[in-house]
Amino acid sequence: MDDGTENIIVDTATRIFQDLCEPATINDxxxxxxxxxxxxALEESGLPVxxxxxxxxxxxxxxxxxxxxxxVAGRFAVPAPLAETLxxxxxLTLAGVTVxxxxxxxxxxxxxxxxxxxxxxQLGGRARRVPFARNAGHIAVLAxxxxxxxVALVAATGLAxxxxxxxxxxPRDDVSFDGAVPAAxxxxxxxxxxxxxxxxxxxxxxxxGALEKILExxxxxxxxxxxxxxxxxxFQAIQHNLSILAxxxxxxxxxxxxxxxxxxxxxxxxxxxxxxxxxxxEAAGTGAAIAHQVHGAMGFTYEHSLHHATRxxxxxxxxxxxxxxxxxxxxxxxxxxGADQLWPxxxxxx
Amino acid sequence: MNFSFRFxxxxxxxxxKELRREVRAFLRQEAEAGTYVPGDGKGSFSRExxxxxxxxxxxxxTWPKKYGGHERSHLERYVVTEEMLAARAPTRAHSTADxxxxxxxxxxxxxxxxxxxxxxxxxxxLCFCIGLSExxxxxxxxxxxTRATKTEGGWLVNGRxxxxxxxHHADYMIALLRTSPPTKExxxxxxxxxxxxxxxxxxxxxxxxxxxxxxxxxxxVFDDAFLPDSHLIGEVDMAWKQATDELAYERSGPDRWIxxxxxxxxxxxxxxxxxxxxxxxxxxxxxxxLATLRRMSLSVAGMLQAGKTPSxxxxxxxxxxxxxxxxxxxxxxxxxPQTGDSEPDSNDDRFEEALRxxxxxxxxxxxQGGTRxxxxxxxxxxxxxx
Lengths: 350, 386
Known about the structure:
The complex is a heterodimer.
Chain A: H1 8-20, H2 23-30, H3 36-45, H4 63-76, H5 82-94, E1 104-107, E2 116-117, E3 123-124, E4 126-131, E5 138-145, E6 148-155, E7 160-162, E8 172-176, E9 184-188, H6 192-224, E10 226-227, E11 230-231, H7 236-262, H8 270-295, H9 306-316, H10 323-337, H11 342-346
Parallel strand pairs in A: 1-5
Antiparallel strand pairs in A: 2-3, 4-8, 5-6, 6-9, 7-8, 10-11
Helix pairs in contact in A: 1-3, 1-4, 4-6, 6-7, 6-8, 6-9, 7-8, 8-9, 8-10
Chain B: H1 14-32, H2 47-55, H3 74-86, H4 95-108, H5 111-122, E1 128-131, E2 147-151, E3 154-162, E4 172-178, E5 191-197, E6 203-209, E7 215-228, E8 232-233, H6 239-251, H7 261-271, H8 277-305, H9 311-335, H10 348-365, H11 372-382
Parallel strand pairs in B: 1-4
Antiparallel strand pairs in B: 2-3, 3-7, 4-5, 5-8, 6-7
Helix pairs in contact in B: 1-3, 4-5, 4-6, 6-9, 7-8, 7-9, 7-10, 8-9, 9-10, 9-11
């Protein structure tokens, strides 16, 4: 159980979300209303640039702090590009580029993404399903430059953005970078694959937070809702389903921690990210199904807030590689090492 | 309110990593010497092996030195345990005593007994079994009716324990015995823990062969068996307070998710270096589950090290872990490339043996040490539902 020993950064984030991330704010955001008060408070607190050191315009927090904030953000279904701005800040910092204020996002978000930075200084290529592109002031673009990779900071104004949404109703826009001239460029020792791995670690924190939320909602609902003359929490079938949900929530939390650690060192450990995204993705599906079953018809309404978490879980498990993609990759990694190296592979992190 | 259970990450200290290397080297040496066959499904019984493990200082690792222990951390103990289990080393002569019986004696036993018994356990010389279940008391542990009646200088025991694993090998049992009837207010009242020497006159052990054809289970019959007063463990009638602590130790260890692991290892061997997409995906999914469970189980060891009693967290690990290890053989079966007569494969025997054993033991995994249903009840209580 939560022992309440979180740090000040997490406390700050929690307070802001409690005050300014109400269910109505989340519903309005889905209709296209920018959550200005929420974003302004976040920006004021420095949380979106937590992973950026002071000299590049950020708050200089640890990787662990940033990931912890993301978990709370997942709990509250924050309908703004906090995660994306954090990733962009991390990426720009790797490239030594000063981070601008305002909401940011990143591109591409798929391992086969291919945006090029040409010799004439112009970008070429497009990226599909860029999160919150329409809301971003700038986009941190991971681009091919010759045989290497560079990060190009691009102002969003002037880019051709075609709007689409995830099944959670969050902006996932297609963006063309053809002819765009970056405001700044820096080299990075990173490719699309590693950027996607990092993105998976970020989404896993949000998923773990959303799962914590639906467990809390489901337990509360079971205690409050009476049928057959007693709270449904008293029925063994409900108790067992909620126990399974609690197990999935715990596994997703452990998986998210695994991925966060794998992305906090000098090099990203892709095997650990794979383990985490497979397990976390499965937990999202199993967990959301149980939460809905416990909530009955009420949880299937737009009015009830359960869908703020469950629809995001269904969207997030698919982003930055779903369970199939990562499981195949993990399976190939294991097979290449051979049967007798399976146990050493599992124990390698510790 | 936050209902989520926390499994904080654990970083193993450098001494634990060094210890892992030592244990692997020891296990390699023993396998080469022919003491055991690595990966052999059964994880069998060898007093000789247990004495060697004791000589290494790897039994009773967390206990005080004055009782033969080694005052090392729960995390170091965890590393030793998981390496032994992953290799399927023959630890059964000491594993119960090391995991469960020793800690109970250490916590609640009388000084004389602690001084006599614990050093022997730590040397790998004593094998323990657990006397909980009875014909009419399975999941309902506190319904036990085997009686201990006070007599001059000790207690007389009459009744029957059943499903007692390894009783035929054991030197001692920790038994839960009825000393008073339950009270109206507390149906768990009236049971007491005792140390029972299995050679005591009046004890008869009868084998119960399980569906694998193996002899692990026993029925243990007590007919006026005499236990000296010194064998009383803890408070008379108050075992319900003591028995629940044990469970955090019993329920979160690697043995709760690793039992069918050899089947996965052999599947990887059969898959070869370049498996099909489907096979790679299947292996990847199982490895993801396994690695996450291990992390959670290690986290519970970290909680024990910090002096907590993570009973509910342990139940979560056991529920997830035993469901995983139980489902694994069927996943392996359906993923495995089928071989007929055309491609003789030297690994087939190992694969089939591992899968056969895993399939046969699967049903017991969600029953022993607390059924799935009991565990989910414990988790539900932890969630505040009951």
